[in-house]
Automatic annotation (TrEMBL):
Record's protein name: DEP domain-containing protein
SMART domains (UniProt xref): DEP (SM00049)
Pfam name, any one: DEP
Lineage: Eukaryota, Metazoa, Chordata, Craniata, Vertebrata
UniProt record, GO biological process: intracellular signal transduction; regulation of signaling
Ranges where the DEP domain occurs: 21-98
Organism: Petromyzon marinus (Sea lamprey)
Length: 142
């Protein structure tokens, strides 16, 4: 796996912080087949959330493409299938890179405020990178 670019790594931090600030229930431990998956989110919920954050995200496929950017860079990881290359708008578990380490779940108040201020800029960046990520997803499908 590659090392994420600084911009995309930062985008992941911003999104995670804002999710924790506005919808902390989305990032939590979940059980599946008697196994507990720590601090993860559900793909379909991430898509729903992203669509609620910006009027410029019009379609679920657009939101999927934006999460795909983070998945390709390793800032977001599929929790059960490590080799999963395509973000899916389903009941699949994803974990932010920040949650792989044993970092404190909640960021500091200053970090949260900064992330709130940077959210729209982050969404613009991901919406610009999303179409190329979506094209790569389509080309990868067998």
């Amino acid at each position: 796996s590659q090392v994420p670019s600084e911009k995309i790594l930062h985008a992941g931090v911003v999104l995670r912080n804002v999710i924790l600030s506005r919808a902390s229930h989305m990032i939590r431990d979940r059980k599946y087949h008697l196994k507990t998956y720590r601090r993860c989110c559900v793909g379909a919920e991430l898509v729903d959330w992203l669509m609620q954050q910006s009027p410029s995200v019009h379609a679920r496929t657009q939101a999927v493409a934006m999460w795909q950017v983070l998945l390709e860079e390793g800032v977001l990881n599929h929790d059960i299938v490590d080799q999963e290359q395509n973000f899916q708008d389903k009941l699949l578990f994803y974990r932010f890179l920040e949650d792989e380490a044993e970092t404190p779940l909640f960021p500091l108040v200053d970090e949260l405020r900064e992330s709130e201020e940077e959210l729209q800029e982050t969404l613009i960046l991901l919406s610009q990178l999303g179409p190329d990520a979506l094209m790569r997803m389509i080309l990868r499908k067998p």
